[in-house]
Amino acid sequence: MFFKQHIHDDASISYFFGCGGLGKAVAVDVRAGDEAWHLEQAKALNAAITMVFDTHVHADHLSGGRTLARLAGADYLLHESNLGRTGYRFAPVADRMLLAAGNTRIEVLHTPGHTEDSICLLVADRRRGDAPWFVLTGDTLFVGAVGRPDLAGREQEMAALLWHTLHERLLALPADLEIFPGHTAGSACGADISGKPSSTIGFEQRWNPLLGLGKTDFIARLTASMPARPADMERIVAANLGHAEYA
Q: Does the predicted TM-score (pTM) go above 0.90?
């Protein structure tokens, strides 16, 4: 399996990975303007991009996912809760759905809390076995932090949902499983995010200050320290949903 992490100046992170033997590639959380980087990676690896994911409808940056999918002739995938919300067609994914790119297997985990449509991607290399190799956690779990729950305007409700997602879905994964988040330090999508671009479930369970809290304390702590909302959030979301142009 090949795997590339692309860290941007705005602290967002996109991913490019897949099966080198069978020439199948997957792109995740592509930022607008970086489509060419993914196409160059695919050409260098002699791999066809077959799937392009967004882990949620982003509020802090314009997505290049649909554009890359069109240029590569790939499917563009979002969680099924976005059906009826977008001004374009996409391939809907659901919780526990299994997808394959050659020998690379992807299990979709619906992980609401940061947003209602948030997903994480549990990735395995079938040449090594069925055990997962890593999980892309989007804006649900960061290194040293968690996703902000207030963008939908229901921060208490969403923070409670995020607590359940973290404890019932992600922290139930193997302790040695690597996590690769959607942002590093400097992002407005969470408070106190570490500058480290990866971690493990076990390390976060031990050292992430929010993960040891009960639900009531988690909600209180998380909602008391929200950073300023991303600039132009409403316009960015509208553009990412296909309802407006962003200029």
A: yes
